[in-house]
Amino acid sequence: MTQTKSGTIEHAMAKHTKAASGASKIKYFRDALRADPDVSPEAVERLTAKFDADLSHVRIRRGATPAPTVDDVPARAAVQQLPSVVSAFDPHAFSLIVVMTKQGPAGLEAKLRTIDNIDQLRALARAQHVALDRALVALPDVRAAIIAGTAQRIADRRAAAS
Amino acid sequence: MAFFLAVANRKGGVGKSTVAVGLAHAAAVWGGKRVLVLDLDSQCNASLILLGGQGWLEAKKANRTISDYFFDMFDESAGAPRDYLVHGTGDVRDANGKAARISLLPGSLLLEDVQGELYVKEARQAKDPDIVASRVKGRLLRLLRRFEPNYDLVILDCAPGLSFAALAALKTADLVLVPFRPDYVSQLAVDRVALLIEEKRNIDDLREIDLSRRRYTCIANGTRENSRDRNIIDEIGLDHPMLTAQLPQSEGIANAFDWDSAPKRIDEKYGAGTAAIRGLYDELMPLMTARMAAE
């Protein structure tokens, strides 16, 4: 058998890596991102979709964690649901600071009322550097805390520039 | 009469030199202007972009740097400022294939030291530290202005620190361009440089000056097309004048830092970033013209 240089490289790659595309690729990205505690669930889905769109296939080192297995691969139908989950919420869809400054606390509250998912409100606060007490569980309390936190951020910035 | 444009931000790494040199290329090539870049940053990045490392070293050996100029001419003796300049810099050629008309007063690693020496020299004449500082700043300002007759546009690439030279540049500039990265730290940096430029103590005082009357304007640099960056730009734009033009994260603009001994067209230099540089120039030029007319 004649081996070209590139053929040798491909052989070596196949020996130490495993190709992943389609569902197994998505599974790998999602699991890898979920393993990082600093990546929010929304970011996991957003980045998974981004990588899926940009990369046709990847080669994963054997023994890498998390390693996709045939059994782990989700059903194609589940994967196809991904875009609707991903596009569900953007924690930067609007700026808390801008709304607060232009429309005041009442305007910000009205804007926050358009979000009725507590995880999304938390994601919004976290993404925009607004501190939020994790003990809060009621939607009105979380919204009120975000408004107070936004006011605090504006005050902090003003103080820092004094 | 030259227009003095300072490029400044108290935060480092926001792309001041890249923006300064990009505008120099744009004004020389697209505008046919006679451009002078004064490198007031001891990192010397603008000089390295326009001259390359070897060219900058040669200028340094020939004592043609900003610190040589300040030190030699501080007493406002009858020297010739042009002797300190390097002409025909940059690796971009104009539409006729000739080197773009960009002159440079190269930067110097010794700029801070020289300013210290000038302060000590001045302190022999006066005892009050504020008076000494004011005199040093005033003399440097006059030295910066001495290039005025021979150029259409003088670009002052400022250091992030509060050196006398940087303060003189902010004081004498007809307009200050403040590049910033869309991140939360940059908000504070823009606030602070704005207070310095407008000589205000806090944001509330600053707000008393209408955005259209400010001596500075901001440009977002290294932007990505996402809602996070857009939000931060909008937030900074609440308190500061902001150009519509933005400089996106672009390999073309980042690679423009590399000096090439073979001059090329500006679109070859900036690649995919050319349109963004053009957008910045097209928006800034009318603004500069209007300021000039108003003065």
Q: Main beta sheet of chain A, described?
A: 2 strands, antiparallel
The biggest sheet of chain B amounts to:
7 strands, parallel
Question: Termini distance of chain A?
Answer: 76 Å
Indicate the radius of gyration of chain B in whole angstroms.
Answer: 18 Å
Shape of chain A: elongated
State the end-to-end CA separation of chain B: 11 Å
What share of residues are in beta strands of chain A? 5-15%
Count every beta strand of chain B, where a strand is a DSSP E run of 2 or more residues. 7
Residue runs with pLDDT of under 50 for 5 or more positions of chain A: 1-6, 67-87
What is the mean predicted local confidence, pLDDT of chain B? 92
Query: What sequence of helices (H) and strands (E) makes up the elements of chain B?
Result: EHEHHEHHEHEHHEHEHHH
Question: Radius of gyration of chain A, rounded?
Answer: 22 Å
Which two chains have the most extensive interface, and how many residues on each? A-B, 17 and 19 residues
Q: Helix- and strand-based class of chain A?
A: mainly alpha
- Return the structural class of chain B: alpha/beta
- Write down the overall mean pLDDT of chain A: 77
Strand content of chain B: 5-15%
- SS summary, helix count of chain A: 8
What does this protein look like?
The complex is a heterodimer of chains A (about 160) and B (about 300). Chain A has about 160 residues and is mainly alpha-helical. Helices cover about 60% and strands about 5% of the residues of chain A. Chain A contains eight helices and two strands, in the order αβααβααααα. Chain A has a two-stranded antiparallel ribbon. In chain A, α7 (about 120-125) runs parallel beside α8 (about 140-160). Chain A is elongated and about 60 Å long. The N and C termini of chain A lie far apart (about 75 Å). Mean pLDDT of chain A is about 75; it is low at about 1-5 and about 65-85. With about 300 residues, chain B is α/β, with parallel strands linked by helices. Chain B is built from twelve helices and seven strands. A seven-stranded parallel beta sheet of chain B has the order 3-2-4-1-5-6-7, sandwiched between helices. In chain B, α9 (about 225-235) links the parallel β6 (about 215-225) and β7 (about 240-250). In chain B, α1 (about 15-30) packs across α2 (about 45-60) and α3 (about 65-75) runs parallel beside α4. Chain B is globular and about 55 Å long.
